[in-house]
Amino acid sequence: LQRITGISAFVLITLQIFLSTNRKFTKLHMLNGILAYTFIFIHPILMVIYRYLYNSQIDPFYVYVDLCVLCDGPYEFYLNLGRVAFWTITLTFITARLRGNIAFITGKKVGEWIGNNWRKLHLLNYVAFYAVSFHSYNIGTDSVNNLFVYFFWFCQAVVIYSIGKKIVEFKRS
Questions:
Q1: What are the Cα distances from residue 155, in Å, to 2, 86, 158, 173?
Q2: What's the CA gap between 72 and 95, in Å, rounded?
Q3: Whole-model pTM?
Q4: Is the model's pLDDT at 151 over the cut of 60?
């Protein structure tokens, strides 16, 4: 289940970035964002369950917030990228979903700032995509499968195309 949610999240993040390049897909983009975040949310929960089943240890802090600057090794570093991506995507998801009502939660000044700048905050999703990419490619169990590797590079090309298209649109306007 963890593999399925991880790969599904990676595919849906890629699709999310691609859908963001065309305003005709706004409703699909919003629905896909909810679906993508569902998989993103479930993926680390399954890690907590996995660690409990194999170590008899329930430690959500390790999975969610045990960030390291100088990690104990490559595995911990790439796991750390997953944590950073999780919190980055969580931030952008919450600001996008609540952008109209965020002033009620955060106060008027913060709410206005988020309401005016949520699209700029959304740029963090590109950073999160690459954090997820390094995370999945280096510690994902499917990264040894040639089909996944080809698909991984296809997703990289889709995101680079999407970024290029956004830059061209930005320069035109």
A1: 20, 19, 5, 27
A2: 33
A3: 0.85
A4: yes
